Automatic annotation (TrEMBL):
The keyword Transcription regulation does not apply. The keyword Ubl conjugation does not apply. Keywords: Methyltransferase, S-adenosyl-L-methionine, Transferase. One of its GO terms (molecular function) is methyltransferase activity. Residues 45-133 form the Methyltransferase domain. It comes from the Bacteria. It holds the Pfam family Methyltransf_25. GO terms for biological process: methylation. It comes from Sagittula salina. This is Class I SAM-dependent methyltransferase.
Amino acid sequence: MSADRETMAVYEARAQDYAQAFGKDHKANPALIAFVAALPRDSLVLDLGCGPGAWARAMLDMGLRVEAVDASAAMVAEAARVPGLVVRQATFDEIGAEARYDGIWANFSLLHAPRAAMPAHLAALCRALKPGGLLHIGLKAGQGEARDALGRFYTYWEVADLAALLESLDMTWGHLRQGADKGLDGAVAPWFTLTARKT
């Protein structure tokens, strides 16, 4: 299954707009601070769906080694401007590493995957983590699947449903955070983030 064409078209056309709107310095973000603190020193992290690379830049600045992927060529081009960042174009289906990463940062990227595909994506991420590795995931809260005003595809998740998938992979989850923010489409939407540890 490839990335949703309409969603990718939005990111291809508006990569610079996205970078300007969401490319701030994230080093003071509580979720990122907790994620970095929970990892061994000099950990290797995968930034899944890295966008313009702002989160990856923060992780590099905080002492992590970072590999980044995004399905959008325009986003990869933006992220490639981050000094020291290893970045390549790839879809969720192309994550095939095994026991490579100490951590995976999937911050509001997997929300573009259809619900039916999520179990396979999470299983691949679990395989890509080293034993004891840490997954951060951010999703929009709610139910169902829909497109936003820009045409991007979203799957909305309840915490309990995501938690059940993680538990089925023998991952222990916690550090739940919830909020609501304005997106690229201008709409305010509820969200949650959590982390899951591979056993």
